[in-house]
């Protein structure tokens, strides 16, 4: 172990990464100390793609128009496309849509289980990296698929869903939802000229920059809005409603549009990793007239969904899962069929150990971050401790985890650092070390 250990001049910060939906913002950070921010050069910041330009200090729409169109006279087109109020006062680092991209073709980002491209009476299994175009029909069976557009918008089709892809205007897209569900993540910088619409026989959902879910069943269109705003409009009559963040809506076949507040995330949940490749989820105090929905995914953003299950009593079991690391989200569905906000959990199936991942920045030790993740049990609190010695007499950090998501620790000294995660049963007060290890091991 290295000697002459000193904390002077060192910065220790911890970032708590909470996976909320959305969310489309999926990351919230709590900063306990200083954080270094790296800013690239103006030339590098401007190079985004052929479709977008990132504003640097001093830019105007005249400059951008001349650079990309060869004349400054196209600035009104850029102003209208991006809904910019002050063409001479552009906020640095914002993205300006150049109006050149087409959402088609869409790319298959993830596929798990059964997902097909339907052509008449034929169906072809879709694979990661395949593309789908205007007029294509995509259908899932016992599986899910995530489609990505060129501007970063993503649509997730869970099991037993069917959509027809249609163009709307020159650069917009419509998902004609014939059955099942579409969960959408639409970037906030998406311009008004790029329409994004969910269409069913019952009604429409129109958005710009939001995270929402649309489900069509029994001639009823249901939506839950987790971020941003959705306009819900019936096909019958002219009734429409703005559905805000935290609200849901039901459009009936008769043309009525009903807006309600989303149910809160379930609380007091017990997750048990069983020996026979099963994961048991139990809502300890289930509510009446509520259906519970649980989804298992390989990623924290739930773009790669592996399993999807519903229960009336809050008891759910996923069978046949290989030991490993998973993400779980759990929500309550009200009596109208509108899905509420989700609770998120990290599941280490058949593994009580802590996963520790080093995330380096530009190859320098000072830019490294360490990611700690472990399974959280109900009625249990956890703390992450870092120390300069193996006996933990010189504790550098003693952080009580307030969330089920992973913890990121950054700007650590280059000396050997010892870590451990301690769990405490909130009912008995008994504590135990569930895992321990060393960072920057120089031995």
UniProtKB/TrEMBL annotation:
SMART domains linked: LysM
Domain (LysM): residue spans on this chain: 51-98
Pfam families: FecR, LysM
Regions annotated as coiled coil: none
CDD domains tied to this protein: LysM
UniProt-recorded name of the protein: FecR domain-containing protein
Organism of derivation: Halomonas qinghailakensis
Taxonomic placement: Bacteria, Pseudomonadati, Pseudomonadota, Gammaproteobacteria, Oceanospirillales
């Amino acid at each position: 172990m290295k000697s002459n250990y000193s904390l002077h001049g060192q910065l220790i910060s911890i970032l708590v990464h909470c996976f909320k939906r959305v969310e489309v913002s999926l990351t919230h950070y709590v900063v306990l100390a200083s954080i270094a921010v790296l800013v690239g050069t103006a030339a590098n910041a401007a190079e985004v793609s052929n479709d977008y330009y990132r504003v640097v200090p001093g830019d105007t729409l005249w400059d951008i128009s001349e650079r990309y169109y060869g004349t400054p006279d196209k600035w009104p087109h850029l102003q209208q496309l991006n809904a910019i109020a002050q063409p001479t006062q552009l906020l640095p680092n914002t993205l300006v849509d150049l109006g050149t991209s087409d959402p088609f073709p869409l790319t298959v980002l993830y596929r798990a289980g059964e997902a097909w491209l339907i052509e008449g009476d034929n169906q072809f299994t879709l694979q990661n990296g395949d593309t789908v175009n205007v007029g294509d029909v995509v259908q899932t069976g016992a599986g899910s698929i995530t489609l990505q557009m060129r501007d970063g918008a993503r649509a997730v089709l869970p099991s037993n869903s069917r959509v027809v892809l249609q163009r709307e205007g020159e650069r917009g897209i419509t998902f004609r939802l014939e059955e099942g569900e579409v969960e959408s993540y639409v970037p906030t910088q998406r311009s008004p000229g790029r329409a994004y619409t969910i269409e069913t026989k019952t009604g429409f959902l129109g958005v710009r920059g939001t995270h929402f879910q649309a489900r069509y069943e029994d001639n009823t269109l249901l939506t839950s809005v987790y971020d941003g705003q959705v306009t819900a409009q019936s096909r019958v009559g002219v009734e429409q409603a703005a559905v805000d963040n935290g609200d849901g809506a039901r459009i009936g076949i008769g043309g009525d549009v009903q807006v309600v507040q989303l149910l809160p995330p379930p609380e007091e949940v017990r997750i048990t990793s069983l020996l026979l490749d099963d994961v048991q989820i139990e809502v300890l105090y289930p509510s009446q007239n509520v259906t519970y929905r649980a989804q298992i995914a390989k990623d924290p953003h739930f773009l790669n969904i592996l399993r999807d299950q519903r229960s009336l009593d809050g008891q759910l079991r996923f069978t046949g899962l290989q030991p490993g690391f998973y993400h779980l989200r759990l929500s309550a569905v009200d009596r109208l069929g509108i899905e509420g906000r989700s609770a998120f959990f990290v599941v280490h199936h058949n593994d009580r150990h802590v996963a520790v991942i080093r995330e380096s920045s530009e190859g320098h030790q000072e830019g490294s971050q360490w990611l700690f993740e472990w399974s959280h049990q109900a009625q249990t609190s956890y703390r992450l401790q870092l120390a300069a010695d193996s006996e933990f007499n010189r504790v550098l950090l003693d952080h009580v985890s307030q969330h089920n998501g992973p913890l990121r620790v950054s700007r650590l000294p280059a000396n050997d650092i010892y870590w451990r995660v301690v769990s405490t049963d909130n009912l008995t007060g008994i504590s135990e070390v569930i895992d321990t290890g060393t960072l920057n091991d120089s031995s």
